[in-house]
Design goal:
The chain is an alpha/beta fold. Helices cover about 65% and strands about 10% of the residues. The strands form three sheets. The chain has a four-stranded mixed β-sheet. β7, α18 and β8 (about 465-470) form a beta-alpha-beta unit. It is found in: Membrane.
Length: about 500
């Protein structure tokens, strides 16, 4: 009994510390994203607190950390600058509704269509974004910091990174990222080092968020403004969330629930916006920090959300005194650990198109946004798949005086339809022609049109055309078109 209790307490302690570490790393990220979106930092922190709690309690992926996201902040900036923050709140409510509709129709399974090469590009692209985003803290007014402050920050970053990387080799009793933050903070205080702190970004002190209905005219004109942004934001949020879910599934060798996670993200966004929050989704950097700190259950996400709220209400004075370099150091380590270095060593061992997809997705993720990158990767993969399968279509023939049999091998669909029609010779073939599908599949309308076109050519020559050997599925498709199976085409 006592042993079970001690184990349970150990798990709770680990989860809470993981949540604290994640919450600390969230603060500068979320404040930075809020500034990118041209909204008050508390707007970002409120969103992070609410979305983090909603995803942790209701979501389908324990251990994943959600919050106000940079990918959504970039899109939101244009809306805020043109129409104001109230339109942002209305848009995020609509974004949440769209995401919940996505989950309601159980479309989360679409994530299975994302190829592994796209996943690698996504991970590597976000790793680069996480790392490069930290460089802004080493700049001031578009230029590098003066030599002394820059060296001070680099020294504290090095302390944080070394502790974060080396501590797990000695003990795992305390999350290494948390230890790194505490070590850099202790060094800064002990040596009376003057360096940039979290408070230099913005004050995070505030009160409990209050319920607020967006102050916009509820007209069709408003919908025309909000809906395009909501569609983009919903797509970006879902793509980043579900790909992060997939990544954590692989790391933890467990299974998440995409539809449940999509529903919780939508709920978190809708409720968050009604309490003055910006948009958010799963955050890969903080999720990796949470996993590395030992967070595997919902408690870590709940703890992260509650710690964020406590920072806003009571702990802002202390959090604002943490050296910014400590949190930057942690994120640099996360960036390094997130990047899939193995993908670089296997470039020559995988098919060329997979390498191309990975590179394209990585670059587009960095240069534009994740949704565009993933769509581009899927389109390229689909085109390559279609091209390869189109080339695999083959026909062999067997002929006697009054009959010619065509044996089709492969997949007949839009990419192979033209090649298929060129394989027949209606003018010179004998009176009876049979097309055997035992080793082939009919996949789409282009395939049916190709078969129908060939049949019409034989009919114009006064010759018969039969289809035999169709699978049950292909048989239904062909009969629906009006083609007769296993008998003369009329």
């Amino acid at each position: 009994m006592s042993e079970n209790n001690s184990v349970s307490w150990g798990v709770v302690q680990r989860e809470v510390l993981a949540g604290l570490t994640s919450a600390l790393s969230l603060v500068p990220e979320v404040v930075g994203f809020a500034l990118v979106a041209h909204v008050n930092p508390l707007t970002g922190l409120y969103a992070a607190f609410i979305i983090c709690l909603a995803a942790a309690i209701l979501g389908g992926r324990p251990g994943m950390i959600s919050g106000a996201a940079g990918s959504m902040a970039v899109v939101s900036a244009g809306l805020v600058m043109q129409h104001g923050v109230e339109y942002l709140f209305a848009t995020i409510v609509l974004t949440g509704i769209l995401q919940m509709a996505f989950a309601w129709f159980r479309l989360g399974k679409l994530i299975r269509m994302v190829p592994h090469s796209v996943m690698l590009g996504f991970v590597n692209g976000l790793a680069i974004i996480i790392g490069s985003a930290q460089l802004q803290h080493l700049h001031e007014g578009g230029h590098w910091l003066p030599t002394a402050p820059l060296l001070t920050m680099l020294g504290l970053i090095a302390v944080t990174a070394l502790v974060t990387v080396l501590l797990p080799k000695l003990t795992k009793a305390i999350p290494s990222a948390l230890a790194g933050i505490l070590a850099a903070t202790a060094v800064a205080f002990a040596l009376h080092v003057h360096t940039r702190t979290v408070g230099d970004l913005a004050s995070i002190h505030g009160s409990l968020p209050s319920f607020h209905i967006p102050a916009v005219p509820y007209t069709f004109a408003t919908l025309k403004i909000c809906l395009p942004y909501a569609l983009v934001l919903a797509t970006i949020g879902l793509v980043e969330t579900l790909l992060t879910l997939n990544l954590i599934d692989e790391i933890t060798e467990t299974g998440g629930r995409p539809n449940r996670e999509s529903m919780s993200q939508g709920f978190g966004n809708a409720v968050g916006a009604l309490f003055g929050g910006m948009g958010g989704c799963a955050m890969i950097g903080q999720s990796i920090i949470n996993l590395n700190a030992g967070g595997r259950k919902r408690w870590s996400g709940i703890a992260a959300g509650l710690f964020l709220l406590s920072f806003i209400l009571w702990g802002s004075h202390w959090i604002e005194r943490i050296p910014l370099a400590a949190l930057v150091g942690v994120m640099f380590v996360v960036s390094f650990e997130t990047f899939n270095w193995k993908s670089l060593t296997t470039l020559r061992k995988v098919p060329g198109h997979d390498t191309l997809v990975m590179i394209v997705v990585t670059l587009v993720t960095v240069l534009t946004n994740l949704a565009v990158a993933v769509v581009a990767g899927i389109v390229i993969s689909a085109l390559v798949f279609a091209w390869d399968h189109a080339k695999d279509l083959e026909i062999t023939t067997e002929e006697n005086e009054d009959r010619k049999v065509y044996y089709l091998d492969g997949t007949l669909f839009f990419a192979s339809a033209t090649q298929f029609t060129r394989m027949f010779a209606p003018k010179t073939d004998p009176q009876r022609v049979v097309l055997v599908f035992e080793n082939a599949r009919v996949m789409d309308a282009s395939a049916l049109e190709a078969i129908d076109g060939v049949a019409r050519k034989y009919r114009a020559e006064g010759k018969s055309f039969e289809l035999v050997g169709l699978s049950e599925h292909c048989d239904r498709i062909v009969r629906r078109k009006g083609l007769q199976v296993g008998s003369q085409y009329v």
